[in-house]
Amino acid sequence: MTFAKPHMLPYSFEDRTGSTTNSDFDDIYDRMFFHVMRQPGRSTTYIYEMPIRASHHRSLLPLNREPSVILEFLPDESLGNVTFVGKGHFTATTIPMVRYLRKTSLFGTSLTRKFVGSDGREYKWSHQSGEGQQWTCTTPENYLVAHYDLKPPNVKTLDVTGNTLTIYEPFAHLALELMASFIIMRHVAEHHL
C-alpha cells in the first residue's frame, strides 16, 4: 500500500460515540467537523458539516441548518438513496445507494465496495483489509485514502470512543463523500446487507 507524502498532516477525526446514527467526527487539529444524526424511530441519517466542534458546543448549535448529506435507508434498514445536498450553484444529487456504492464483484463480500468520487476517480472501501484497520479506503493504484481504526484495548480515553477516522490530506477535498460512503459501509456491516 502506498501512503501519502510524510510531510502532509492527515485529518484525524475522533469518533465521539462509535454509533452509525449519532456521533460527532472532530478533527483533532480543529480543521473540519461532522455531525451524524438520526431522529429516534426514523430510518434517515443526516450528515452535517459543522463550523465548530459540535460535540463541545451542542447547546450553542441547534441543528436548524440544512444537512450536507441525507442517507435514506428503507424502514427495514436496507439500502435506499443517498442525497448530496446542493450548495451555492450546485444542485442536489440523489443516487440509489446500491448504484453509488457498488460491490466489487458479483459473488464477493458486500463489505468491499467501490464508488466514484466527485473528482471522477474510483475509490474502494474494504473491511479489515489493512493491518490494524477496521475499514480501509484505497484507490485502484493502491494509494491509501482513509482508514478507520478501533481503539486499542489497553488505551484509556475520556469523552471519546478512541476510534479514529483518518483521511489523508491529498484526499481532504473528498471528506464529505468519504464520510458518507464510510457511514453506509458501516451500516451495511451492522445490518448484514
Automatic annotation (TrEMBL):
<dbReference type="Pfam" id="PF20236">
    <property type="entry name" value="DUF6593"/>
</dbReference>
<feature type="domain" description="DUF6593">
    <location>
        <begin position="21"/>
        <end position="187"/>
    </location>
</feature>
<protein>
    <recommendedName>
        <fullName>DUF6593 domain-containing protein</fullName>
    </recommendedName>
</protein>
<dbReference type="InterPro" id="IPR046528">
    <property type="entry name" value="DUF6593"/>
</dbReference>
